[in-house]
Each structure stands twice: as C-alpha cells, then as structure tokens.
Specification:
It contains eight helices and 17 strands. The strands form four sheets. Strands 4-3-5-6-7-8-9-10 form an eight-stranded mixed β-sheet, sandwiched between helices. The chain has a five-stranded mixed β-sheet with strand order 12-11-13-17-15, sandwiched between helices. By secondary structure, the chain is α+β, with helices and mostly antiparallel strands. β11, α5 and β12 form a beta-alpha-beta unit. It starts with 5 loop residues before the first helix and ends with a helix. Bound molecules: 2,6-di-O-phosphono-beta-D-fructofuranose. The site of 2,6-di-O-phosphono-beta-D-fructofuranose has 12 residues, from α6.
C-alpha cells in the first residue's frame, strides 16, 4: 500500500478546498514541533529532561522540566512562520503575541504542551493537545478575550501521543485522521483515515479514587456499570485509567470506550479538573468528528461559551450511547430538584 505523508494529506485537503495554505502551514509547523518534543521525551533520563522544573504554572501546578521544554519548543516553532496572530498555553497566564519582527497571520493557537505531566517521570505515555481558532477580523493584538470562542468555531484540533509509537490525531471538521511517526524517515504517515468510534462500549475510564466526592448521578451511573451483568445495565464493564488524557482518549479513538472527569466536591469551586480551551474543546471536536459524543454531563462541550482562558469543565466523552446515558442521568437529576 502506498503511504501518504502528513504533508501530502494537507496538500490534498487544500486542493479539495477544505483548508487554506496558512492553516496547512500551521499544522505542519505544530507537527514538526511535536517531533522535537517526541525526541526530548524519548531521551528520558539520559536527556536530562525528567523531574521538576522548580517553577509553577498559572494554575498553581508544579511544572516538570518537560512541560517547560515542550512549551518553549511550540512557542519558538510557531513564532516566525506568519501563520499566527497569537498563541496561548496551559503554561502561560496570558496569550503570547507574535514578536514584531515576524509577520502575523490570521489564526490563534492554543495548546497543552505536555498533557499527563504526572506520568512523565514514570515512562508512561504523555502528549500534546492543540486547538486552532480564527483571529477575529480587525484584531491585531489578540488578548485572552479574543480566544474565548465556542468550541464549534475551531478550525482544527489535534493531539500527539508520545507512547511506544508517536501518533498524531487531527481533525479539520471533515473526519478524524491518525498519522504515525516513521522515526527513521522523520515523517508522519497516514495510518487511519476517517476513524469511527463504536457507539456502544463496555469499557470506561475514570479516577475511581474520587468516587465518594462525585455528585449523585455520577455515583448512580458508575454504580450501575460496576454492578455488571447482575445490575440494571445487564452487562459487565471493564475499567482503564492511564491518567494521561491523550492516552485514554487515544484508546477510545482506537477501540471505543468512555472517559469521564466529572465534577466532584473537591474541585467543584474550580468548575472541574480539565481545561476547556486546550483540553476539552479540542478533544470534543476530535471525538465528535469520529462519531462520538462529548458533554459536560449537562450539555455539549462544543456549545459552551468560554469565560476564561484557563477555565475548567467536567468532561464526559467517547462512545455515543454511554455518554448519552451518563448525561441523561445528570439532566434528569437536575430536573427533579
Ligand atoms: P495531569 O494532571 O497529569 O497533567 O490534564 C490533566 C491530567 O493529567 C489529564 O491528562 C489526566 O487525564 C488527568 O489530569 C489525571 O487526573 P488524576 O490525577 O485525577 O488521575
């Protein structure tokens, strides 16, 4: 079978009128930066990249060296190409403008440079997540407020998993596609076109240690899954929790399943655990484009009107039927109050 590189795929998408040259260049640049992050990640202890950076990010979380390195790689790669008006990252309080010496483009890029940080030092898959928005017309100095667009307006979204293989999953709103890095050649090669997530599943991902803090409808839903064949769902369910969102979502993209990071009493005041703009929105876009569903437990993630660059939300995503059941339990419980 003739292999199709990412570059060739992007050229074909451009010819089909599904993206413009600037967006195509942006994706190429992000993919190139992620190859550098993959190299840094793969070096592990001998690259001197493991451990704490000794700093904290805006959310008060301790930064790992690789968080900082990955952020710098993405910022540097994206500064000079002329495809961006500004970048925003989990690791920076405010958006980063494009330096004056470089031309500015029409896009806004948001990213979580290294998702699953707590897994870096133990050699478990981590990843990069990104989302691309259009810079509003007439805005030359984008501020945080210009990034606060509903998920439905995303032009592209993707993630890269740095695992046994480095894998890039992308959507531009015309299906979800997977590319695997050929390390010898240095190119991402199309490995799955138009991925479909099975609507039904018997596998769920959740941090069970938070169970006692969950809201009643979540307790009910997971309780029914755990009851298996003898319970109301009349089916045995299996559980997986990598604790790197990219790796958990990649499993769902590959064989189906559902992923939950619900609201719980510990994180209620923050609104959730995962960040809307550079975690939930891009993952929701990718999952929906693969035939899955993504909600906050109460409504569609992509319809949320963002209120802050680092806003957190509950996340329910994956196989459609299961996301619907869990969401229904929450909506029903709210209506009964
Ligand atoms: P991490 O804090 O290690 O960066 O983005 C946050 C995230 O990881 C997700 O990747 C992961 O799904 C989740 O948090 C893990 O949460 P727990 O620590 O509760 O397991």
């Amino acid at each position: 079978m003739k292999s199709i590189s990412l570059i060739q795929f992007l050229i074909e998408e451009r010819r089909a009128g599904r993206m413009n040259a600037e967006l195509s260049l942006l994706i190429e640049v992000v993919a190139r930066a992620c190859k550098r992050i993959a190299v840094a990640t793969n070096k592990g202890a001998i690259g001197g990249v493991l451990g704490e950076a000794g700093t904290g990010n805006i959310q008060g979380e301790a930064q790992k060296k690789l968080d900082v390195i990955s952020n710098e790689i993405l910022l540097e790669a994206n500064a000079w190409g002329g495809q961006l008006a500004a970048c925003a990252s989990e690791e920076m309080e405010d958006p980063q403008p494009i330096p004056d010496m470089y031309p500015k483009g029409h896009h806004l890029l948001l990213f979580d440079p290294l998702d699953g940080s707590s897994n870096i030092d133990v050699n478990i898959s981590v990843g990069t997540i990104f989302s691309v928005l259009r810079c509003p017309d007439g805005v030359t100095e984008p501020k945080a407020e210009h990034f606060l667009q509903e998920g439905t307006t995303q032009l592209a979204a993707g993630y890269v998993v740095y695992g046994p293989a480095t894998v890039l999953v992308l959507t531009f709103g015309h299906g979800t596609h997977e590319f695997t890095l050929d390390r010898e050649v240095g190119s991402f090669i199309l490995s799955r076109r138009d991925i479909r997530i099975p609507e039904e599943t018997a596998e769920f991902a959740i941090n069970m240690s938070n169970q006692r803090h969950w809201e009643a409808p979540m307790q009910r839903y997971i309780g029914e899954l755990l009851a298996g064949k003898d319970g109301p769902r009349a089916k045995d369910f299996n559980m997986r929790w990598v604790a790197s969102m990219v790796a958990d979502v990649h499993r769902i993209i590959t064989r189906g399943g559902v992923f939950f990071y619900p609201l719980d009493a510990k994180i209620k005041s923050k609104g959730g655990k995962l960040r809307l703009m550079y975690e939930a929105n891009p993952m929701a876009f990718i999952v929906e484009q693969a035939g899955g569903a993504a909600t906050t437990g109460r409504g569609r993630i992509l319809d949320l009107q963002p209120t802050g660059l680092h806003q957190r939300v509950p996340v329910f995503l994956g196989s459609k039927k299961e996301v619907e059941v869990a969401t229904h339990y929450h909506v029903e419980a709210d209506a009964a109050v």
